[in-house]
Amino acid sequence: MKFKKNILCIGAGYVGGPSMAMIAYKCPDYRVTVVDINSARIDAWNSTELPVYEPGLDAIIKKTRGKNLFFAKDIENQIKENDIIFVSVNTPTKTFGAGAGQASDLQFLEKTARQILEHSQSPKIVIEKSTLPVKTALAMERILASAKGKITFEVLSNPEFMAEGTAMTNLEKPDRVLIGSRETESGLKARAQLVDIYARWVPAEKIITSNIWSAELSKLVANAFLAQRVSSINSISALCEKTDADISEVAKAVGMDGRIGSKFLKAGIGFGGSCFKKDILNLVYLCSYYGLQDVADYWESVVKINEYQQDRFLANILGSMFNTLAGKKICVLGFSFKADTGDTRESPAIYITRKLLAEHAQVVISDPKALKNAAIDLASDKGKISYVEDPYSAASGCHALAILTDWELYRKLDFQKIYKSMVKPAFIFDGRNIIDHKKCFDIGFNVYPIGKPALSRFEDQSSF
Ligand code: NAD
Ligand code: UGA
């Protein structure tokens, strides 16, 4: 079959796989190929056990894979054959050299640019889908401009705003699609080609275009604003715990102001995920780089409050359990960084588990999707942790439950049954405020939510 367009995506990760599956699904007359240097990942995309768990993804892959969606390993050949190339490689925080701990590590992006340069035999539109520091397109253009002969490249920025766990709905019905380009004749022409792809299913008013730098920067700023809301509500949760105010009531009252809005005001143990921290730190680095230290400090405080919230949660566990966890069994309910994903990158559960182990607690981890990743994250602590998928078996014989992920299934647990199987006094630390606290207290638990008065049988918490 002859396809109208041939689209390639370099990087078959959490973004590359789902976003290209959606393009293939919505555009059956386009051929979409996804490549990766990680050949095991490509094998997984071609198997029945996809490397990424996302509600709705399996169904779309079944409808498209082998028809107009292909996962392949021959990167060089695919670069030759495709005219539109998305780049969706990882851009982690740099761990070495200048900017270590803040700046983006752009080595994977640069390697991709050089691969495109080396193997292209015809003009290409190269689209940044990875999240990048503003002005990265300039580096990309400079590398590609060194092409010999007449091959031309147009670089666009089309950042991805999907969230994990809801990726397929976000991709199908995005709040907006942002496309940045150079405002030259060829830039605008390339921009129009990409608009045409999204216009197949996204309403025209939701496809917005901008200059290329605005597009790159908007992505970092969107993540920074979202994370800032989480840190704002978490900071207030600390004040609620001191004043008997209830964070859910405060969030509701504040969020009903149309100017503020109710989303992203759930207090918890802090944000995790592969992007919020890295993107804010990248913003902080950029601001410092451009000499805007006050602006850098402002955004850095969002990350600091996130760390503070996790430490507060741990201090609460330790203080409430008579200042010693040594030898006590703690059941961690939920390890992924949020519900509906098996992803554990930067999950607060990693930090919290390590701190529990440092107190010589015995940790049992339960999660419906993330146990495999949890065991990888905590490989250096092998032997000190048990992994038990069934929450009832996991909780049995434990002194405390620490709810770290907002999985729906935890709301519906039979806490009466769990209470019976635990060591008394039994504790629940609800790091996501998802269970019925009063009901659990009435069963017999001592219950410690976030940003709400504790329901405890021990009046004085400060006996030490
Ligand atoms: P990921 O690590 O899951 O996937 C990136 C993939 O790129 C990996 O499989 C890696 O092997 C591959 N890769 C690296 N260099 C390559 C090369 N030279 N050739 C071929 N493949 C190569 O990362 P991700 O979560 O998909 O994120 C990708 C980008 O998208 C990041 O910049 C991230 O900030 C951004 N982003 C992520 C999300 C999300 O929800 N995960 C959402 C929006 C934006
Ligand atoms: C986030 C953004 O929401 C996406 O728009 C963006 O594309 C993506 O980052 C990215 O660039 O990678 P994601 O990290 O998948 O998506 O998940 P979110 O739903 O944003 O949650 C992030 C973290 O914040 C989670 O740990 C979540 O539990 C926490 N959170 C979120 C709260 O603690 N409270 C809230 O009210 C909302």
Show the helix and strand layout:
Layout: E1 5-10, H1 16-26, E2 30-35, H2 39-45, H3 57-64, E3 69-72, H4 75-81, E4 84-87, H5 107-119, E5 124-128, H6 136-144, E6 153-157, H7 167-172, E7 177-181, H8 185-198, E8 207-211, H9 212-243, H10 247-255, H11 276-289, H12 293-320, E9 329-333, H13 348-358, E10 362-366, H14 371-377, E11 385-387, H15 391-395, E12 400-403, H16 408-411, H17 415-421, E13 427-430, H18 437-443, E14 446-448
Parallel strand pairs: 1-2, 1-4, 2-3, 4-5, 5-6, 7-8, 9-10, 9-12, 10-11, 12-13, 13-14
Helix pairs in contact: 1-3, 5-6, 9-11, 9-12, 11-12, 12-13
The structure holds nicotinamide-adenine-dinucleotide and uridine-5'-diphosphate-glucuronic acid.
Nicotinamide-adenine-dinucleotide is lined by residues 10-16, 35-38, 41, 75, 88-91, 108, 111-112, 130-131, 160, 162, 164, 274-275.
Number of helical elements: 18
Report the sheet-strand fraction. Answer: 5-15%
Q: Helix proportion of residues, in percent?
A: 40-55%
Strand order of the largest sheet: 3-2-1-4-5-6
- Helix-strand category: alpha/beta
The unique ligands bound to this protein are: nicotinamide-adenine-dinucleotide, uridine-5'-diphosphate-glucuronic acid
Assign an overall shape. Answer: elongated
- Terminal CA distance: 75 Å
Biggest sheet record: 6 strands, parallel
Low-confidence stretches: none
If you average the pLDDT, what whole number results?
A: 96
Q: Please tally the β strands and state the result.
A: 14
What Rg is obtained from the alpha carbons, in whole angstroms? 24 Å
